[in-house]
Amino acid sequence: MKAVxxxxxxxxxxxxxxxxxxxxxxxxGFAGVSDVRAGKVxxxxxxxxxxxxxxxxxxxxxxxxLANPVIESWxxxxxxx
Amino acid sequence: MKAGIVTFPGIxxxxxxxxxxxxxxxxxxxxxxxxxxxxxxxxxxVLPGGFSYGDYLRCGAMxxxxxxxxxxxxxxxxxxxxxGVCNGFQILVEAGMLPGALLRNATLRFxxxxxxxxxxxxxxxxxxxxxxxxxxxxxxAHGDGNxxxxxxxxxxxxxxxxxxxxxxxxSGEITEAANxxxxxxxxxxIYSENLRVLGLMPHPxxxxxxLMGGTDGKPLFExxxxxxxxxx
Lengths: 81, 232
Known about the structure:
The complex is a heterodimer.
Chain A: E1 2-9, H1 16-27, E2 40-45, H2 51-66, E3 72-79
Antiparallel strand pairs in A: 1-2, 1-3
Chain B: E1 3-7, H1 14-25, E2 30-33, E3 44-47, H2 67-77, E4 81-85, H3 87-94, E5 101-103, E6 111-119, E7 135-142, E8 146-148, H4 151-159, E9 163-168, E10 187-191, E11 197-200, H5 218-227
Parallel strand pairs in B: 1-2, 1-3, 3-4, 4-11
Antiparallel strand pairs in B: 5-8, 6-7, 6-9, 9-10, 10-11
């Protein structure tokens, strides 16, 4: 299975990168961009074939390493390989 | 004082730290590779600055999971002292040994400049050779030094008097302009609840000799050497 972990800065946590991207978009003439948040996507190939177990493993990885719960939230999706 | 300096791949300020420690102890600190797990006999373990694991994922995130960090935790749990500077501070918060997190500087720019730090308390082994409210100069060199914690944690840190140093003007005023990386409440360094773990972003070890341009950082190391003489 493949696990896709999306890590985002929590609401209320300053995201200067998102802000800079927003400014650059405005500079390019894109009107109506009100807020930009930048995070990261991590794809993990797993030997596990059971979706529930794959998801549980990826959740554990996210909590212990991929995201910092103090400043980031995350969500995990699993797909067939 | 028996001191050890932990190095991870990508750490580059360990020799500055060794110079500062040797200057006050008269002997070289032990250099500890990140795969080592025996820190017995050490009074002080230092996590120096640098860019461990290339700052990949988050600054300090990989280093915080290294084998040596289990030993650093045990060292702290048995009452040993820990100092984390710059990347070392980031590693301590990533390891959960200090609260909060260090975000990208609010300006998005890497800051390489001197700052002024106001000493918030002096009844610790780290700050005993400073005066309360004293301001000293320290070089900063980081892209991710913007201290963040939720308001409840910040209130607790302040209520329990665990803020070690704040970014200040040369005359000791806490202003927004002096807070160049955007840290919450101008916090530059914090203590653990038992005051034995200190993390800070600026580099006191880089001002310990007139040849470096000043000795503002030396009292921190002299204080440690006086406070922890037993094993020298």
